[in-house]
Amino acid sequence: MSEQESGAEAASVGPFPSTGSERDPEATAQALADAVAAGWSCVVTVGVPLCSDGTNAWFGSGIYDPFSERTLLTPPEGLSAEGEADLRFAQAVAERLHALPASGPGSVTFSLSIFDGKMVHGIGRAAARRMHAKITADPEEFLPPAALALYHAVGGRLAFDFSLDYRKLGDRFVDRLRGEVRPVIPSVPTGRLVDLFLGTGCVPLRRVDAAQPTPGMGQVLCATPNTLSVGQHIADLSPLDGRGRIQTGPEAVPLTNENGAYICEVTAIGRLLAMLAHAPAPADGGGVLTLSVLNTRDPGNHKIHRMSWSAGELVTALLPYLRPDSWSRRPLVHWASVTDGESSAAIGSTPDTLARQGFLADLRARIRRSSSPRRREEIIAGELERIRMRVQNADAAKAPLLFLYGPGDYDSHRASGLPAPDGTSAASDGVNHQASDTALSQSCFLN
């Protein structure tokens, strides 16, 4: 299936149903049913925070010490009102879907996305994994009431994902990107980088610090046609839409910090990959549609929402290129239903998919019109340089940017935050990720 054909099918599911500032479960359920009838596999995920003081654990957003992420100052009394509303909305969608006549080769899967990042810092990874196993094995014992209602609404067929696993999925995805592009000369794009650009529109870049020329150092970013600012689109965005933050800011999606360690944007990529993993094999001609139900009050939800659009942009563009053996070139569409407690916004990715494909179609047309091989190379090199300079100029310090290159920039220990061979930690966030293991009683999961 060609990219143009994928775009046509992606557009066929239509925009996310929006009826004003209020969420509409009936319209959302009908839109999902229409996608199922067209052969799409749909995954609906609700974000739920989980926190711990090192001994007990609670569903909800507690207050942590800003100087020490592992220190919980105030545990939550329960889920926030917005968190409860997210789960009730998903429950209503599930119930309306169940009432609609079943038709079509597609399917709908529901899952909980449990944000437990700071909790892991407090209790250690081993204890967190045991907690995850207990929640998954006995949801009725541990889930808060609103989440339990969703669990029953879907007949117990509720998948569980934990943010501890998102980073691993995202790391592997970006590892593959960094391993694919390895120019020898940093300022000259290689054939592999050109192939990536012509196939996806993405330009991986590395921001270098002249004061720290150590291999493995430097921030990795990825620019796409949609991360480059386009003023005519910004005016139409809802204040709850995360696109404007990228398109009016750094002009690229940052994937690492200045030391080369992966950051939360990579976790957001992993979350989308986890959602896609829940989608059954699509029927012939169908694609995968993800719907994220989020709010901006819970810190974990707010962080993921802020990055959901840019993560979706990279996953949609790069997944068929980086995982050709495990993912056919089927269309992807990402929807989001976001609320801040007072108003809601319905967000869809179809316009971004069309804009990216339009950019690629125009670029390929310019190349085809040139009969000279040298002129074709000049067109591609000129476009890559224009994007590189645009991202560099968006940086207040205008730190130099090079095309992503290796092998010096790629250090798996530094990138993953794992302890380096000498036993020192390569993570640069100031947190000891080897927190002591802690036994947790079952009663501590209850609100």
TrEMBL record:
<protein>
    <submittedName>
        <fullName>Uncharacterized protein</fullName>
    </submittedName>
</protein>
<feature type="region of interest" description="Disordered">
    <location>
        <begin position="1"/>
        <end position="26"/>
    </location>
</feature>
<feature type="compositionally biased region" description="Polar residues">
    <location>
        <begin position="425"/>
        <end position="434"/>
    </location>
</feature>
<feature type="region of interest" description="Disordered">
    <location>
        <begin position="414"/>
        <end position="434"/>
    </location>
</feature>
